[in-house]
Amino acid sequence: MKSKVATASADSGRKSTKIDGFTILNGIFFLITCIIIIIPLVKVFVDSIDAKAAYGMNLIPNEFSLSGYKLVLSTVALYKPFFISCVITVAGTLIGLILCTLGAYVLIQFDMPGRTLFSYMLLFTMIFQAGMVPMYLNMKSLGLTNTLWSIILPGSINIYNLILMRNFFEGIPQSLFESAEIDGCTPMGIFLKIVLPLSKAALASIGLMFAVYFWNEYTNVTIYINDSNLQNFQVKLRSLILDDQSLAAATSAGIFQTTVKNAAIIVAIIPPLVIYPICQKYFVTGINMGAVKE
User: Fold this and answer.
1) Residue 238 burial class via C-beta count within 10 angstroms: exposed 0-12, middle 13-18, buried 19 and up
2) pLDDT at site 83
3) What is the Cα–Cα distance from 201 to 169, expressed in whole angstroms?
4) Which residues of the chain have pLDDT under 50?
5) What is the pLDDT of residue 11?
6) pLDDT at residue number 71
7) DSSP alpha helices (H): ranges in 142-218?
8) pLDDT computed for residue 245 by the predictor
């Protein structure tokens, strides 16, 4: 009897350690995908610290130098755009989270008249949009052009994030809402004291998506803002890269133009790289719980 049990356990151990062909192919595919994604990033970083960077596939710097970063960080003209980008990112993220959470909380009120109609109307805007010209005319008629609100408000109303937040809220047990109502808690009190504290994962993940979107904002800035004093970091950084005088100054200082361009790219992606590890532990949980309906 003992030998049969031992044989069965050994067979189960072999089955658990057996790897099928699909798993191997899947692992190879993801390994190749990771290499394809990582190598360009490594190439950009290496060129940013290579004083003699040139076009080619160099994964090791020929001459280590931080002169490209020194040139980018010492450019005073980038300080104000950097501050403007920080303001847009912080304000846009906060407003976006407020609108998403309030809108999602309204949509989980099952006894609200027209709840299904409002949900379909929101989904309709994800498929059909007015377009760039009507959007610009709308911003102009509202007097929002050449203001930071023209960048913050359109990006704050994100239906995809709102739907994710609604699905996350629907996963909260209804018994919590009912017990709070019995204790005399108001709907806003339930939202502030129960819903939000239980939604840290969703808030962190969606907040990260808002922050990355607003930090990388470029198109709307070029469309709605003509005042050079209100341009954000991304637009000014592009101007620096394309400015012949700045690149000529770099060349005269013994810095290759490619080095300056790649250093500017790395500087632009540093803030998201700093924010992501902080929210990483919440990111996957928040997206999974908001994207999957039980």
Assistant:
1) middle
2) 92
3) 11
4) 1-2, 5, 8-9, 290-294
5) 52
6) 80
7) 149-156, 159-170, 174-182, 187-190, 200-215
8) 59
CA 203 → CA 58, 109, 210, 263, 290, distances in Å? Answer: 40, 20, 10, 32, 11
**Contact present, 181 and 190 (Cβ < 8 Å):** yes
**What does the alpha-carbon distance between residue 228 and residue 145 come to, in Å, rounded to a whole number?**
13
Residue 50 burial (C-beta neighbours within 10 Å; 0-12, 13-18, 19+): buried
pLDDT of residue 55: 63
Q: Give CA angle at 38 (218, 201), nearest 5°.
A: 65
* DSSP-based three-state secondary structure for 64: strand
The DSSP code for 60 is: S
| Residue 188 in tokens | 């806003």
Alpha-carbon span 277 to 146, nearest angstrom:
34
